[in-house]
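Aggregate trends can hide what the representation actually does to any particular protein. This step matters because it turns folding into a mapping between discrete strings. For completeness, the protein is quoted in full, as a sequence line and a line of structure tokens:
=====
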Amino acid sequence: MRFASLIFKNILRRKTRSAFTVLGIAIGIATIIALGAVMSGVTAGMEGMLKTGKADFSVAQSGISDLSFGKIDENRTSEIELIEGVEKTAGVLLGIFPIEDHPYVPVWGVRKEDLQMLGVDIVNGSSLSQEHDLIIGEVLSKEIHKSVGDKLTFKQEEFNITGVFETGSVYQDRGLAFSLKKLQEMEKKEGYVTLVYVDLKEGANVGEICRQIEETFPDLVTIKSVAELSKVDKGLEIMDAASMAVSFLAILIGGIGVTNTMMMSIYERTREIGILRALGWKKKRILSMILGESILLCVFSVIIGSLLGVLGVRLLVLQPMIRGIIEPLYTLHTFMRAFAVAFAVGLVGGLYPAYRASKLSPSDALRYE
């Protein structure tokens, strides 16, 4: 019998115990996959929002815990545009409204003349012209079955859909855009915007202009990438910390489960191990067999856990409370991270039992009852 076949057969000899061990680890792996997919989706959405269209970077209020709470004096938009090297700026107010059966729909208050800079491409109908006009993202348009000529009512006000737009960002294309002044009035934030997008002239030094903006306006902070979003929004940091904590717990709990399974297996197979040692198996080979069994259990776990994670996220985004604010993104890094955790669990859980098995002397093992 080949060595690999023997490892596989040893696991199948104790199907129930192996199955529960695999299931326990798989749940931890599924959580890692689900959190990773959600994190990747949120990050991609935020990346698209922070550097939309022609904008090289965005400017937000400093000292806040959540980006949506930001309030920047609208006059800052024109003041930043006067800085040497800046081509154009655009102030945008962000809001969240319930639309139809979607409880959380992102809404942008923008000036009509800024739409092109923000990468908003009207694919059907026309742009904004009146206060109660709005344009709807292509994804949201399909989801709620509303298009050009239809009406939408929210906050007791009726709006006319004049156009359907796309930006290339699923998060933005699942939203709405209408008059900046109108959204300021509805949100009681007259004279304020949430973000200022900055488009630089060709050859301008991004770092230098960002430094100049932050020195000139101490109440503002520049954001060039999602990595810098923690300056004004702690949500991503918290989610990333939660993902790391889950990974650690998966290694700890999974390792304990594998250790228990492999130790019980060794006690039950003491005479068998003694026979193998008597037949000439070296300690290293015994060590490899037990470690191989524990790692193989974890390989099964990562396969099942990955499937459970993907299924769990799909069920999650079907919920009305979640749909529209989370667009999961499955990346190779997420699955590699899950595999690394599973491999670590196999090593942690199998190392001590493998060491104990390799230390058994043939004579003592053969006398074991």
